[in-house]
Design a protein that fits this description.
Oligomer: single chain
Strand content: 5-15%
Helix content: 40-55%
Distance between the termini: 41 Å
Number of helices: 11
Structural class: mainly alpha
Number of domains: 3
CATH topology of the largest domain: Glutathione S-transferase Yfyf (Class Pi), Chain A, domain 2
Radius of gyration: 19 Å
Bound molecules: glutathione
Strand order of the largest sheet: 2-1-3-4
């Protein structure tokens, strides 16, 4: 039987959120996954499916129709495989869930801008901006479920969306020694974050994998782009990340070589 095909980059947070949703629904096998290596020129046949857009994930339905944007595909999966709905069904809760999710783009951007920065003068402001996002999440969680763990009674759509981003932010723990302040103002979001990171449906990536693969982001190059003096991106599939050493942390001072990163 034909299945929908998801063209994706497994280490990308926008792909992982879809994997988390399918795992929660127990439906990973209903979708065929095609892995794309973004360090290589893109297959023209794939590019032709999404004119004007190169970003992944891209979903191709059995009849050839295309969808992109992870949040759109997320809801499509939830509605199409509706036996076990993950989004809230009560209209008010649905609205709160949407509001909570509405900040994910800014949250992701703030984390990525922070890791990619190499100007020490800007570090404080970038840290501050990300903490303001966590503060907003803390306030939302306090308002809607102060004594609980998740936004509602279980790991839901909001958690699918944010967990994969918070897992990418392991790169901030490593390269920026970033941690949430251990204060009352962040206690609720810290509890939520810990439960999200530990959830069994969200174990597709590890901190070691993220720190190694995202080294190039930490020195300013995203999406598989090549840095000066380097012939390979830290995003390459071969050599695979488990065999590579942990990257150096001195991102403000220099860019490590292919050899030092175990890429040749
Ligand atoms: N807003 C998009 C973002 C997707 C995105 O940025 N994907 C990255 C990988 S993490 C990508 O495909 N980069 C390669 C490219 O844009 O050509 C979504 O949520 O799906």
């Amino acid at each position: 039987m034909p299945k929908p095909i998801l063209y994706h980059v497994p280490v990308c947070p926008f792909s992982q959120r879809l994997e988390i949703l399918l795992a929660l629904k127990g439906m990973r096998d209903t979708v065929e996954f095609h892995v794309v290596d973004i360090t290589k020129p893109r297959d023209p046949a794939l590019l032709a499916k999404t004119p004007g857009n190169t970003a992944l994930p891209v979903l191709e339905l059995e009849d050839g129709r295309i969808l992109n944007e992870s949040l759109i595909i997320l809801r499509y999966f939830d509605e199409r495989f509706a036996e076990n709905t993950i989004a809230r069904t009560d209209p008010y809760e649905r609205a709160v869930e949407r509001l909570f999710i509405s900040r994910e783009g800014a949250f992701g951007n703030n984390g990525y801008r922070f890791v990619m920065n190499r100007d020490r003068e800007k570090t404080g402001a970038l840290r501050h901006a990300l903490l303001a996002d966590y503060q907003w999440l803390n306030d939302m969680l306090m308002q809607h479920n102060p004594g609980g763990t998740f936004l509602f009674d279980r790991f839901g759509l909001a958690e699918c969306v944010y967990t994969s981003l918070m897992m990418r932010f392991w790169f901030l723990d490593y390269y920026e020694s970033f941690e949430l302040p251990q204060t009352k103002g962040f206690a609720r979001v810290a509890r939520w974050r810990a439960a999200c990171l530990a959830h069994p449906a969200a174990q597709q990536v590890t901190p070691e994998e993220i720190v190694k693969l995202y080294y190039d982001y930490a020195v300013g190059a995203g999406n598989g782009a090549l840095l000066p003096g380097r012939s390979r991106s830290s995003f390459v599939f071969d050599p695979d990340w488990p065999g590579r050493p942990m990257p150096p942390k001195d991102k403000y001072d220099r860019i490590a070589s292919d050899a030092e990163l175990g890429l040749v």
